[in-house]
Automatic annotation (TrEMBL):
<keyword id="KW-0012">Acyltransferase</keyword>
<dbReference type="GO" id="GO:0016746">
    <property type="term" value="F:acyltransferase activity"/>
</dbReference>
<keyword id="KW-0808">Transferase</keyword>
<protein>
    <submittedName>
        <fullName>Lauroyl/myristoyl acyltransferase</fullName>
    </submittedName>
</protein>
Length: 358
C-alpha cells in the first residue's frame, strides 16, 4: 500500500461512530474492559482511539502480507532465525512476518490449532507458495503443524532436524473454541497492570526439543511507511517439569509485547478477544472517571448479544440483562450526554454509579 492509501484507510476508520452499530458497541465493550484492566490509567477517549487503531492495523496487516514493495525494502535482521522457535504475536502488521521469512529464505513451519487449520489452513499454504513465486525465492516444504494433535512434538522435532524453524503465535487464543482460564495448558502470568492466562506449550516444546526461542515482533510506522523489528533471544527451560522455569520463560516471551503495548497499544489485535484470559479484579480507580459524561462509560457499557440487551460491568466482566426500552434510554444518554425527563431507573443507576456527574 502507498502512503496515501494507508492514510485513507486510517481516516475512514477514525471517522466511524462506534455507537451507531449494535455490533460495534458490543465489540467495543469488551475491548474497553480489557484496556481498563491492563492499562487502567487510560481514559475512555483513549479506549476509543485504541479500538479504532486496532481495527486499522488488523486490516493493514492483511494487506501488508502481499505488499511486495514493502517486503523488499525491509532488510534482514542480524539474528539467527534458522533452527529456532520463532515466537510472535498478533501485533501490528503481523501477517507480514511470514512474507519476510520467505523473502529472507528462512525455512519454517507454522504451529496452529485445529480451528485455524480448518478455517485458514488452505489459504495460508496457498499464500506461502504465491508469495515465494512473486518474490522469486525458493519455496520450502511449508506446512502447518496441528498443535492439538498428539504427534505435535514429534513433528516439531522432525522439522528442527530438517533445518526448519517453528513459528508460534503466543497470543493465538482467539481461535481456540472452548478454551477457558481453567485449562491445564494455561498459566497465569503478570502482564501490564493485571494478570493474564497464557499458553505454556511454547516453553514446554522448547524444553523438550532443547531449542532456543527467538521472539520477533513487527512495529509498523505508517508515517514513514516502514517497519521496525524487535527481537529477543530466550533460553529454553532446562526442566520442563519445573513450573517456575516454565513460568519464567513464558513471562520473558511476553515481555517485548508488554513493552510495545505501553508505547503503542493500538497496534494489538488481541484487544478484540483477550478479555477471556485477563484477570479482572474489580479495583478500578475512581481517578480515571470522566468529569463530564453522565453515563459512566469507564466502568460500564451497554450492548446487545444474541438478541438480548445488557449492561456490562467492565470491572468484573459480568452481564446484566436489561429491556430494550432501558437500553435505548441509556444509548440516548451516551450519545447526547443528557437524561430525558422521568427516566424510571434514574435513582437506581445513580446509586450503582452507572450514572455520574449529575
Amino acid at each position: 500500500m502507498k502512503s496515501n492509501e494507508i492514510n485513507e484507510l486510517y481516516n475512514s476508520i477514525q471517522n466511524i461512530n462506534i455507537f451507531e452499530s449494535d455490533k460495534w458497541i458490543h465489540d467495543f465493550n469488551f475491548i474497553s474492559a480489557s484496556i481498563g484492566a491492563l492499562l487502567p490509567d487510560l481514559n475512555f477517549d483513549q479506549h476509543i482511539k485504541i479500538a479504532k487503531e486496532s481495527a486499522f492495523y488488523q486490516i493493514l496487516s492483511s494487506r501488508d502480507e502481499r505488499n511486495y514493495d514493502l517486503i523488499r525494502r525491509v532488510k534482514k535482521i542480524d539474528f539467527n532465525l534458522k533452527n529456532r522457535i520463532l515466537v510472535t504475536f498478533h501485533y501490528s502488521s503481523y501477517r507480514l512476518l511470514n512474507s519476510l521469512l520467505i523473502s529472507w529464505s528462512v525455512p519454517f513451519k507454522l504451529i496452529a490449532d485445529d480451528n485455524y487449520i480448518k478455517n485458514q489452513g488452505t489459504s495460508t499454504v496457498e499464500s506461502y507458495n504465491k508469495i515465494a513465486e512473486e518474490l522469486n525465492v525458493n519455496a520450502y516444504d511449508f506446512e502447518i503443524i496441528n498443535a492439538e494433535e498428539r504427534t505435535v512434538v514429534f513433528k516439531c522435532l522432525k522439522a528442527i532436524e530438517e533445518g526448519y524453524s517453528l513459528v508460534f503465535y503466543a497470543d493465538g487464543n482467539s481461535g481456540t473454541g472452548g478454551m477457558t482460564k481453567n485449562q491445564k495448558n494455561l498459566i497465569k502470568i503478570p502482564f501490564l497492570e493485571s494478570e493474564m492466562y497464557v499458553r505454556k506449550g511454547i516453553a514446554v516444546i522448547a524444553s523438550l526439543l532443547k531449542v532456543p526461542i527467538c521472539t520477533i515482533l513487527l512495529n509498523r510506522d505508517i508515517n514513514s511507511n516502514s517497519v521496525d523489528i524487535f527481537c529477543d533471544n530466550i533460553e529454553f527451560p532446562k526442566n520442563r517439569k519445573n513450573k517456575k522455569e516454565l513460568e519464567d520463560c513464558t513471562i520473558k516471551i511476553f515481555r517485548n509485547l508488554e513493552n510495545l503495548l505501553i508505547k503503542e497499544p493500538g497496534q494489538w489485535e488481541g484487544w478484540f478477544y483477550y478479555h477471556n484470559f485477563i484477570e479482572f479484579n474489580n479495583n478500578a480507580s475512581i481517578n480515571n472517571l470522566s468529569n463530564t459524561s453522565i453515563f459512566n462509560n469507564r466502568w460500564y457499557g451497554i450492548g446487545k448479544l444474541a438478541g438480548v440487551y445488557y449492561i456490562l460491568n467492565k470491572k468484573t466482566l459480568k452481564l446484566v440483562p436489561i429491556s430494550k426500552e432501558v437500553y435505548l434510554e441509556l444509548l440516548y444518554i451516551i450519545k447526547n450526554n443528557k437524561i430525558k425527563k422521568d427516566f424510571p431507573l434514574f435513582k437506581t443507576l445513580k446509586e450503582e454509579n452507572v450514572l455520574i456527574n449529575i
